[in-house]
Amino acid sequence: MSPRPNVSAERIPQILNAAMLVFAEKGLHQATMADVAQEVGLSKGTLYLYFTDKEALVFSVLQASLDQGYGNLEGILETDRSIKDSLLDWIQKLATQMEDTAVYLSIVYEFYALAGRKEAVRQCLHDYFVKYRKLLSSMIEKGIENGEFGRVDAALVATAILAVYEGVNVLRFTEPTDESWPLTCVRMNQLLLDSISLSSS
Amino acid sequence: MSPRPNVSAERIPQILNAAMLVFAEKGLHQATMADVAQEVGLSKGTLYLYFTDKEALVFSVLQASLDQGYGNLEGILETDRSIKDSLLDWIQKLATQMEDTAVYLSIVYEFYALAGRKEAVRQCLHDYFVKYRKLLSSMIEKGIENGEFGRVDAALVATAILAVYEGVNVLRFTEPTDESWPLTCVRMNQLLLDSISLSSS
Amino acid sequence: MSPRPNVSAERIPQILNAAMLVFAEKGLHQATMADVAQEVGLSKGTLYLYFTDKEALVFSVLQASLDQGYGNLEGILETDRSIKDSLLDWIQKLATQMEDTAVYLSIVYEFYALAGRKEAVRQCLHDYFVKYRKLLSSMIEKGIENGEFGRVDAALVATAILAVYEGVNVLRFTEPTDESWPLTCVRMNQLLLDSISLSSS
Amino acid sequence: MSPRPNVSAERIPQILNAAMLVFAEKGLHQATMADVAQEVGLSKGTLYLYFTDKEALVFSVLQASLDQGYGNLEGILETDRSIKDSLLDWIQKLATQMEDTAVYLSIVYEFYALAGRKEAVRQCLHDYFVKYRKLLSSMIEKGIENGEFGRVDAALVATAILAVYEGVNVLRFTEPTDESWPLTCVRMNQLLLDSISLSSS
DNA sequence: TATGAATGAGGGTTCATTCAT
DNA sequence: AATGAATGAACCCTCATTCAT
């Protein structure tokens, strides 16, 4: 239609990626729109063709981050393994990715901080956590039904899994040289799942 | 001796308190030195007699926060109760304080984010977590020795306790209306400690 | 001949009308080329095919406005009524239009302001006022000759008529709720023309 | 009180004067805060200690301008001369000042334009004109009472005086080389006042 | 003729920091 | 010790203008 191919579709992810990088490196506030622009290879002004605001850009980065999120949890279930093994698999995968996500963790904490002051941000994070809590919870319940787990509070365990993961991330962030964190995370969850498993521990 | 009492000693905590308030309310970056000055009732210029920098002020606030920290853990041990009960007591106390600390959590996450970019901040947080991890670890070990707990990895359990606490805080921060978080936190630790306890569960 | 009808001829008035609207609404400086483009239903780039500059567009709007001007004064004379009645007729017509021109008055004052800094604009306005001053002046003179008016300074009276109209517009602009301004304007001119009329007042 | 003398009181008029100059020279929008700052000999930032906004500065300039206004009209009355002579005296004075005020006229028209879009500005100008209209009106009435003038519509005449003055200013602004405008203005008012005077015309 | 994308200079505004008093 | 005034670097954002298609 237009004389020039519509590059909007590709520009936005480009910008988001660049922004994520720059934000992680310099911090949400220290990073300037000029920094982001330079990283994408666009001019400052062009950024504003795609995002009305720095705030809008930040928010989009948040949403893009959450869309990746904890990864494909539903897919995990579509196997014939036990719930416990499936969960541990997922956790293992998350743990393995820890290395790579470390760079972006800094932004995540800025988002958490932001959640304290911006309702929209809080809502976003809230929905995200609730979604995974529910997914995990239903898996635990399935495990209870099929006799893998005892009659535990599924929601509590689900929350615990998320909490442990988030908590380990915090601790790891202050001790990045220690490379055993992924393992620690997995072992904690093993401990947890073992403790609620019925017989074969 | 001095005609006027040296007010320096009292000024600094005054400023730190004010700064903590203002930082929590507006965010580390949105809060200006003017905001802090106004909160203490001093002029902007005077602030710089006590802190060379905004950075210095921020760092001092971080240290002051950490000095309060998780509370008196050593004191807990000086009882004749079981390790498990002592630990749960401590956790209970922490959980109870959650309500009050919520306001400041926003700064905490900004500090975490800062840790990704400022070595000094990371070091500070690191020392803090290590200190508590060691304290908890030695308690767990004492529990193993006296037969309360099985032969678990004490360091892992200690880390788990901290991780769970930190993780719950994260989740709670995005769902502040739900008031059951303190309870959730305690129950998780009960689950954890139960699972490593030998007989009497 | 050309496969497509040459739309240039119609485009320019379209653009000028749109620009006038937008300029009136937002102000000469607040109105952007994008605003104008959107109002015409063209793209920003296309605007520049018709006007080299924003300045050029503004200037064209000025000229277009002046072309409408105070309306057909010459036509007024082509009757057999007295000069005085003809003039009052014309003033009456102008006064009646006040309502409608009110919207555009805002631009007019911006043009006046511009005249203080742009020679071309001043020249334009100058020629405009001179033209009407001369027309009015010659009418007054005709009135003197045919005995309607006394031996007044025709140029002065002509200027007075214009001044009164311009002045009333200024006052009305700050008091738009009062609806008596057109009447006021007419009465002032009646007063003026009465005072220079010979007998039949 | 303060270690440094409080210069606020002198700064504000300094800034207003500078702003008036710069605004007149470059136009309300083309003039930058930096321009104004440089004119006062202050830094850009300092300007914001005294005016929250450019808008606030503009508005203050408007008010300062109006405070000077048409000059001391009340004072005129405190003589034993006739109303007519007093009024002509005042007009003469205004006319004489035309030369000096010419420079600032450009801003005045921008203010008029602004009045079309900013209620506060309109209000300001409105109050100003009303004030002088009332003053003039009461003078005319006094003239009617003491037999100087016929039973004319005092308000109409008052408005006419202002309108003529404003109108002449407009015309003069587009023909600044002609130096007879002050005279023209006076003669118009003479014509007007003569026409409403009773005997001794 | 038409346009969507891109640009970059420039303006308003903020704020950490300094300093004379 | 205390401060109010001043600074200036830096940031966000706008918008007239260009250009490849």
* Inertia-based shape of chain A: elongated
Q: Label the CATH architecture of the largest domain in chain A.
A: Orthogonal Bundle
Task: Kindly estimate the percentage of residues of chain A that lie in beta strands according to DSSP.
Answer: under 5%
Structural class of chain A: mainly alpha
Q: Which whole number gives the mean pLDDT of chain A?
A: 90
Biggest chain pair contact, residues each? A-B, 50 and 49 residues
The oligomeric state is homotetramer
Work out the helicity level of chain A: over 70%
- Please give the count of helices of chain A: 9
Would you write up a description of this structure?
4 copies of one chain form a homotetramer. Chain A is mainly alpha-helical. The first copy, chain A, has 2 domains: 8-62, Arc Repressor Mutant, subunit A; 69-196, Tetracycline Repressor, domain 2 (Orthogonal Bundle). Chain A is 75% helix and 0% strand. Chain A has 9 helices and no strands. In chain A, helix 4 (54-68) runs parallel beside helix 7, helix 6 (83-115) packs antiparallel against helix 7 (119-145) and helix 8 packs antiparallel against helix 9 (181-196). Mean pLDDT of chain A is 90; it is low at 1-5. Chains in contact: A-B, C-D. Chains C and D meet through helix 6, helix 7, helix 8 and helix 9 of C and helix 6, helix 7, helix 8 and helix 9 of D. Chain A binds a DNA duplex (21 and 21 nucleotides) through residues 2-8, 11, 32-34, 42-46, 48-49, 53-54.
